[in-house]
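Hi V.,

You were right to ask for the full record rather than a summary. Here it is.
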Amino acid sequence: MENNLYPIKFEPIRKPKIWGGESWQISGVEGDVSVVANGFLAGNTLDELLEIYMGDLVGDSVYEKFGNEFPLLIKFIDARDRLSVQVHPGDELAAERHNSFGKTEMWYVLDCEDGAELINGFNREMSKEEYLDALNHGRLLDILNKVKVKRGDVFFIPAGRVHGIGGGNHIAEIQQTSDVTYRIYDYNRRDSEGRTRPLHTDLAVDAIDYKFYNNYRTDYVSEVNSTVNVVDCKYFTTNVFEFDEPVEKDFPEIDSFIIYMCTAGGCRIECEESEKPVEIKCGETVLIPAAIKNLCFLPDGKTTLLEVYIKQPPTASEEE
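Predicted structure:
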């Protein structure tokens, strides 16, 4: 039993930033690959696990598509000041320019100060010409959609959507494995040596989705002792799992790893493959290998987890 895969925790990768900091919880990004923190695999990298366990770790269909590249990057973001206004390219443009995946992502607001805001999309119908005029005349912030946020808010940010995290936000971020960011505006701030950060305004122009959308927030109603879907796209599925009593879960149909991010409370996770439960508390993350199909969650009071995995595309017969 001791050599079976089990719920895996990783050493957080801390990244101080000019606006606050990030904790990369699970990363396969080159140069920042996560290292196992618990069990007999402690000290091994995520890359090494993929090479050894392949589909048992991530799911056969996920491994077939991504090979030894882990497809998601999981972060906690502590924004004490505003992040830059930015956009990410989609898969096609990122492959062409950077030999990389694009970056579709989502945010879950863990906590926020009163009055905290996010930037998400435009606040009216927009064209490339209008955008460039506003950018070049210092009026970019006038055309962006600013949203007051509260704890538990969800925002889905497909590649191409202009966005920015405001100060006073603590965010859980789930995204494609990509570190390609086009910085459009950085509030003219300077680092401790008086330097501004580089902007990528020319690269951003062809990456931006200029459409206006009526609602940029993802509306959902959480239910205690139930799992509620909040985002379902080809890159990842995310559910909010809120519970205050023991819950057993089975995953016979999911051919994917499952990631749990604890956003409130804490719990123990038991499975047959592990002799002792894995504990997870607020601000921690655990990866459940695809080979594990049954889990029992034992909460320490009311607990909220984000449940993340990659849903398999429908077969040809299912699409007909």
